[in-house]
């Protein structure tokens, strides 16, 4: 039995980008990847426009809540993807880190959030192809 890879998405508020990325990875991996998300300064709730943008894709992230980034979450992850949190993310040797430069959807309308969502989906599909090459893509 192989261990599933764990991917952690981190942004400052854990209310938009990281939640959308986590929603996509959970949906598209079909449970073959453990998905975590967190923020260095999490908001009280997920950005409602991010929830709406994902609902258009048939993915419900409304039940999630922003979580604070912990050292343990980083330690148990194989891949750590940061989105504009930079220096606040703890670095551990042997982890794979990626920084995705994405616009922050906070305070944006749905028309501005859709292209961010679509870019996240494209990056998630690339990540899935790397992490689960045997599946032959999504």
UniProtKB/TrEMBL annotation:
<dbReference type="InterPro" id="IPR036196">
    <property type="entry name" value="Ptyr_pPase_sf"/>
</dbReference>
<feature type="domain" description="Phosphotyrosine protein phosphatase I">
    <location>
        <begin position="5"/>
        <end position="130"/>
    </location>
</feature>
<dbReference type="Pfam" id="PF01451">
    <property type="entry name" value="LMWPc"/>
</dbReference>
<protein>
    <submittedName>
        <fullName>Arsenate reductase ArsC</fullName>
    </submittedName>
</protein>
<dbReference type="InterPro" id="IPR023485">
    <property type="entry name" value="Ptyr_pPase"/>
</dbReference>
<keyword id="KW-0059">Arsenical resistance</keyword>
């Amino acid at each position: 039995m192989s261990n599933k890879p764990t991917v952690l998405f981190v942004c400052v508020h854990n209310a938009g980008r990281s939640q959308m990325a986590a929603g996509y990875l959970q949906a598209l991996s079909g449970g073959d990847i453990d998905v975590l998300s967190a923020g260095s300064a999490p908001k009280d709730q997920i950005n409602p426009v991010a929830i709406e943008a994902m609902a258009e894709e048939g993915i419900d992230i409304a039940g999630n809540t922003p979580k604070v980034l912990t050292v343990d979450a980083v330690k148990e992850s194989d891949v750590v993807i940061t989105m504009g949190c930079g220096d606040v993310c703890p670095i551990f040797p042997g982890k794979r880190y990626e920084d995705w430069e994405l616009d922050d959807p906070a305070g944006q309308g749905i028309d501005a959030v859709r292209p961010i969502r679509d870019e996240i989906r494209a990056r998630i599909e690339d990540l899935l192809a790397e992490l689960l090459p045997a599946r032959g893509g999504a």
